[in-house]
Fold Thiol oxidoreductase.
Amino acid sequence: MKAWIVLTVLNLMAGAATAAPQIDMDYVHAEKSGGETTVFFKGQSIWAFRNPAANLSEEEIARHLTGDALFERNFSDDPNRFEYGLGPVHNNTSCNACHAKDGRGALPVVPFNKEWVPLRQNEAVFLRISIEDGVKKPKTKENKFGAPVPVPGFSDQLFHLGSLGVREDLPGTGQAQVWMKYEKSQFTYPDGDVVELRKPVFKVTGAYDEYFDSVSGEMKSRLYEKDVRMGARIGTPMIGLGLLEAIKESDILALAQRDLSAEGVSGKANWVFDIEKSMAGDPYPVSLGRFGLKNNTPSVLHQSLGALRGDIGVTNYAFPDESIAGTPLYEAYRSGREPHAGVEATDQVANDIVFYSQTLAVPARRGATEAEVIRGAGIFHQVSCTTCHQPSFTTGDHPIKAFANQKIYPYTDLLLHDMGEGLADGRQDFDADGREWKTRPLWGMGHTQTINPRAGFLHDGRARTLEEAILWHGGEAEYSKNKFARLPKADRSALIQFIKSL
């Protein structure tokens, strides 16, 4: 790196108002974001997230490609078809539908002449649901080790689609209909620039247990009760999951021990139910959460096979029961039909999907030697983005040897942080409260809207640009957001240019 560029970065660091944690500044010019697993492209590419890790063996690449076909498979609710398994309620028909080209999903388009639009087929967003009493309880087998409490008669996820015969009154609908609109607001910078922000708002109608209460004159459902919490989730990028799985637990927990009180930051681990430990007979199957928007799953297997059963309705060896088993809707649907066929995905299908999800490569950085990008890297540190978006780790052991002992640059601490009321969904998820979210990895960010031009950022896809995403930061991130807002416009642009280089 040229000497004058190094001095520029060091000067920016020295100008920070509060001393940030010590960061390995090699991230400024690092190109191999995924270590030796990294793949390279000339410029931006719609295929940037669709490649096996570069250091896999030929046999592993062949298995990855098998998993790729399964990831794109549209499952069917017709028992006579080989793709059978869909439903009886679901949010989508394939993994790829929520993770377009293995990238981020997009929110529905709201026409100018409509206020609300329904969630239909192939939407990349759905609602998590649970009931809350506000009391923190010890993790026990009875409460599924601290898991969210499902809404009675429903589940912990709201399924807006249904197979033929699930709802005679509303064909094609699952447990209920879900509608979305946007609320808009403005952020004004100290220099007078104004940015419009938007937030998706959801409402639910047509619940399968809905009835008219003649006393109150209202439509009632267990889903409409005041103790029910709902939180939107949108499809996130699939890249680098095996590498995140390979980060040593001790390194993540060490980050949680840092004293970041000067910035109002306190990273926190989420200890969650572990299906692999449970299947192995562990009496206390709890592990460190790494995946999901609130770190609510501990492994790629748990995350992938949970989504296969949950989002699509395809049962598998890890999750063999239907997501709505035991509910009145399910019992009515099964009445008079042939007995349930059992687990719908073979162990081989399930494991190939997991392997594919683990082995998607991270693309290399672009423009890492450009002066403006390097200047933005220094500003990224100056405004304390690196406090939570920890630039680098060195991985430990992993069953897939390609991921072991790799220097990687994911830009996450894999911890929970209070992100403020503006991003809160009010739902507890194991140790995560309603305002806490995982620090999302930033690697590959610059390809996101090349892969899916309508892709949105943050947990519910509300942010159309990286700038909007930054401006939604609150809570523990308020300190950094305010420092960003006070920057000259050219410096804000340089910081975003750096993020787009990742």
